[in-house]
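Figure 6 in text form: structure in, sequence out.
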């Protein structure tokens, strides 16, 4: 069985960091914008962005929104620091942290978002459980990602790439149905985003059970 490894992920994103925004910025822009619009942050909200990477979304947040961003890649976070060197520093915090084992207290955030992250972590269920734990009861959880495609050509490509996932730094195959079943919380809506609708935005509501 092929399995992602944390050390391999860190190595992969060390390679990607310098050119990540140039390569993936425009490709993933539509999905990011859709998620931000759906998030509808209110003044004073505390938001956690899981896998914040280079911080490309930080300029999207209003000055009155408190944003914490975590990532397992120190190289990606080093680039993200460019967005927290201004007058809004008090409301922007970056942490080197494993999304599968966060150090935040229970019920810390009004909204929790993971953009292009669930196929990067070795244990997606652990990530979802942690997102639920740190999100306040009744808070919103957003997951934006590519999921397994059952059409012939995309599935052939995913199968071909699977042995190389530790080099790529992400798993090319993750069934959306499996993830939704393991979230264990109500899904509000599901939208197709980005080029050809190949990526999916899931909006769920946290029930507050922490499990």
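Output sequence:
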């Amino acid at each position: 069985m092929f399995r992602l490894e944390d050390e391999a992920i860190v190595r992969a994103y060390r390679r990607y960091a310098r050119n990540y925004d140039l390569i993936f910025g425009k490709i993933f822009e539509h999905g990011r914008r859709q998620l931000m619009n759906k998030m509808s942050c209110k003044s004073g909200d505390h938001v956690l962005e899981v896998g914040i990477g280079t911080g490309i979304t930080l300029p999207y947040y209003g000055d009155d929104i408190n944003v914490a961003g975590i990532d397992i890649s120190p190289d990606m976070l080093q680039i993200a620091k460019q967005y927290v060197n201004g007058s809004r520093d008090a409301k922007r915090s970056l942490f080197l942290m494993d999304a599968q084992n966060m150090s935040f207290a229970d019920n810390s955030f009004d909204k929790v978002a993971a953009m292009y992250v669930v196929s990067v972590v070795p244990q997606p269920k652990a990530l979802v459980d942690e997102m639920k734990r740190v999100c306040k009861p009744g808070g919103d959880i957003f997951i934006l990602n590519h999921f397994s495609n059952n059409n012939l050509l995309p599935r052939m490509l995913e199968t071909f790439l699977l042995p190389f996932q530790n080099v790529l730094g992400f798993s090319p195959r993750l069934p959306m149905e499996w993830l939704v079943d393991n979230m264990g919380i109500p899904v509000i809506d599901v939208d197709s985003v980005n080029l050809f609708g190949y990526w999916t935005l899931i909006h769920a509501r946290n029930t507050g059970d922490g499990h």
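Caption detail: The first helix runs from residue 6 to 16.
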